[in-house]
Every structure is written in structure tokens, then in C-alpha cells.
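Practice problem: predict the structure.
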Amino acid sequence: MGYLTALTRTDFSRDLNYSDRNIVEKLFQTVSMRVNRFNETWNGSQASAERWLTGFFHYYNHLRSDQALDSQPPAEAL
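Answer:
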């Protein structure tokens, strides 16, 4: 799913207030850049990539504190 699809599904495609639209576009740009960087530098197997990503998602959602969430991990704040 590309960012234009996301903009359409969230009804930002016709939004004249570009602040929310710009946030969505920047998010997709950042994710795309990081995925490309990961693909260019990863030299392990698919299984090792899955283990690494699972560990990263656990850290990001359950252990990492987020200043915007009063220094709580996202899973705890949810």
C-alpha cells in the first residue's frame, strides 16, 4: 500500500490543510528509506531477519519509553 492509497483511505487526499497530509507522506518516505537501507545492508537469512525484526518490534513497543506518551512504552500507554 502506497502513501497515495493511505491518503485516500484517510480522506486526506482532498484535504486543503496540508499539515496532516505532509505527516502521512513523511511517514511513508521514512519507512521506505529505512526498508531500502535494511535491504541494502542485510546479509543474513530470511529467518534471521524475522528474528531481528521480532526483537526490534518487541523493544520498540514494550521496552522503549516515548516522551510523547509520558515516558511510557507504547504498549503500556495503550
